[in-house]
Amino acid sequence: YARELNSYCLSDTDECGRSICHGVANFLFPCPSCPSGCPVPRAFYDDFSSGLDETKWLVAEKSWGGGANGFTNGGVVAENVVENITAGTITFNAHGNDYNGEVMGINKDLTRKTDGVRTGGAIATRDYLGAGSYEVRMKIAPELGVCSAVWTFFYNDDDFCSSGDEPIINHEIDIELPGRPSAAHENIEFSQALLNTWTGEIGSLYETGYTSLGKYVDDDAFHVWRFDWHTDPSDRRVEFYLDGGHLRTMRNVIPFYAGRLWIGAWFPNGWAGEPNFAEAQMEVDYVKFTPFDETFECPNESFPDFGWAAGTDIGLGEIQLCTPSPPSPPGTPSPMSTSTPPPITPAPTNSPGGGNYLNDGCSNLAHTFCNGYLSDSYCKTWSQDHCGRSVCQGDSFSALNRCTPNPTPSPNKEPSDAPSKKPTDSPSKKPTSSPTVASSKKPTDSPSKNPTGSPSKKPTGSPFGGNYLNDGCSNLPSTFCSSYIAQSYCKHWQHDDCGRSVCHGDSHSSLSVCQSKANNPSPLPTNAPSPMTTNSDPTSIYQLKGCAVFPDMDSFCHEYNGGYCKYWQSDGCGRSVCKGDSHTSLFGC
Description:
This is GH16 domain-containing protein. By secondary structure, this protein is mainly β. 6% of the residues lie in helices and 18% in strands. The two termini are 32 Å apart.
């Protein structure tokens, strides 16, 4: 196995008949609660002759990437997905640095930005597709700085961090243009492409294929891009083709989870060049999928219903992997623990923070508790069991005492104009002779609120002693937000400077003013190097404070391990690591 020398497949199997490798963490999904197996594979074809078929496609409205070196992008929005029924194509508008039009970008919390620069458009299949031949005829956006891409995507991130034992599960196959000949962000051209495969976000679980195309494809012409995804255990591979000619075969890291097929134009941070233009277009003529009779798996994603255009009816898809999930993002079961769980020492009955770990979890204990309980551990406050309890990194919920969920205090009745998740009419597909925006419902800046601009300041307590206005929702029961705002949920993957999360439909301005972590730094570990000075070794600084403290985060990570700073993920001390690294490489905090 690539991550463990002298490993072998264990003979023991779980209830689904699956085995793992000796000495390697078990990050298989628990056996699904829905019927076993995947939907019967079916061929898929769309030439957009009738516009964008909403029973086949979702229009994305979300943002990813950006942030390092002050770089931000506007994500992808529905207004930039345009159907041209006369031509039988879909156009993806890309707005660069010089754009000053009316289409605004979107923030990661799904509120609208105040400008539209570095904003693209993307669509994804409603259905999850597995092994097969994927073919897209498209004309790429001919400007540097914007990435024209075709990719499959499956993502499960229950822990919101990447460790050597329980990596984020990210099964993905990419075709991305423009490309470059090596990891360095230089010699970026349209005669190069990035052909990538992923199964996770640590170094041994993804592979980048720097690929020469033998010709320039920014030629205002359609080209046929194809990859054949084989999941047969005897010969797993992905083969990439351009206009029928073979480009590359990948065998080292091959996904085996079904994913949605994405197509779009978006703005990465630097590796596609600088977007010094106003507007560019990527155009797609047809999409074709031919299934292979090969074995693959179909677990559920963490947040399959998050980040789609306003008015999207998630239930329209023809194939569901399981029973449709509720409106709030479903908490996909976390990957199973290692085959040999770490020894658990008896938890202290009390701690400086009050409480009892075995009964109540770690959320309300002192922030140093987990580091003393398990070396270099921290409290995973964003992940909770049915009683709202969190555990230390490296521990599992089975270590806690059994509990019965306490009733949640009922907040006051929500104002009549509280946000509603009821699906609205689907985007109009009015045939015209000229291009029309795929979604006629222009997203608003945020879900509607009461007249004061934020939800009523109601719930202050919980069975676990939390206070929403002071502490946010991460440590409150999972049912809290749906009672506070109709059909809401805690956006625990986003937080303010004090580490507090809010309910979907609320904003951080609703919370009480707090003292920023920046003004109250955590004490340094006794074995840590001295704080950053002009003569400090960058590696020591990184091990102490993570990569986000560097003025040029990505440059540091590129020199350190060829990666980039994953500033959007942090450990219990707010530290981020370079892509391909794990938090266990940092000093304890």
